[in-house]
Model the fold of this input.
Amino acid sequence: MKKYFILLGMFLLMLSNSCTQSDYQGLPPATGGMSELLVVLQNQKWDSNVGEEIRLLFSSAQNGLNQPEPMYDLMQITHNEFKGLFEKNRKILKIVISDTVKTDQVLARRDVYAAPQMIIEVHAKTDQGVIDLLYSRFPSMVEMYKEVERERISDAFAKTENLKLRQDMIDQFGFYFIMPESFYNAKEATQFAWYRLEHSRYSQCLLVYVREFVDSAQFSPNNIVRYRNKVCMENVPGELPGSYMSTDTVFFPDARLVNFAETQAVEMRGLWRTEGDFMGGPFLNYTFLDEKDNQVITLEGYVYYPNEDKRDLLMQLESIIYSFRYAQ
Done:
C-alpha cells in the first residue's frame, strides 16, 4: 500500500498548489460534451510543440478500456474567439504565454461563466514553461475536470432517480448512490447487490459487495482482484450454462489511491471477461474501509458494448458511484 499513499500525497500536493474559486449563484448551465475539452490557445502555438504536447497528454488513450479511446475530445479556439457560448463550456484549458508573466503558475477557477464549470489557466513566460507545468500538473487537472463532469451527470440522474433502488440499497447496506430510473435490481444476496440497465445495444451494470474488515492486506490490488473473482463467480453468471464473470489479468488492472466518500479508496480500472463465453468489457471499482461498521465496501461499474466506444458509458457509472452517501 505504501506506493499508493505516496501517489495520493503527490496528488494532494498538486491540488493544493492550484487556486480554486467557486460561485454558483445566477449562472447558466454549462455546455459541452461529456469528454469535450475546449483549449484556448493561439493558432501558431497550437501548431507548435505546445499544441503537440497538449494533444499528446489530453488525447492520450483512456486507461482501462479494451479498445483505444482518447481521454478527451479536444476543440481549439483562439483567445479572441473565447467569448459568448464558448465561455460556457464545462471544461476549459486556457494557455497564456507571455514575457509579461511574472510567475509560471496554474490557476483553477470553478463556475466562472456557467455551472458546473472548471477553467484551468496555465501562465508561463515560455513554451517550455507551459509544457513543464502541463506535465507536472496533468493528474490534478484531469481530476478537476472529472469532478465537474461527475457533478453534472449526478445532477442529471438525480432528476430521474429510481427512489425504489435507493431504498433497497439503504435497507440492505445502510448507504446508497443515485441511479436513474432505467436501472433495476437484478439480484440481491448476502452482502451483495447487482443493478442493471439493459439498453437494446449495450449494458451498464453496478455491483455492490461488502465484507468484514480483517487487515490492510484486503486493499492490495491482488487481493481486490481475487475477491472480485470470487464474488462474480458466485453471483454474476454469463449467458451460457456454467459461464461467469471474471477479471482479465493478461492486462492487470491499474490501481491508484483516490479521495472518495470522505476517506481514501483504491480505484481499479481494468477489463472483465466471461469464463466459458466470449463476452467482456471495461470495469472500474472503488474499495474502501467503512470504519463505523468495520467492513470493506466495494462499489463497481462495468459496461458491455461490443465493438463500440465505452468511455462515456463508463464515465456515467463512475459518476453514479461518486454519488455514494451513507443513509442518515
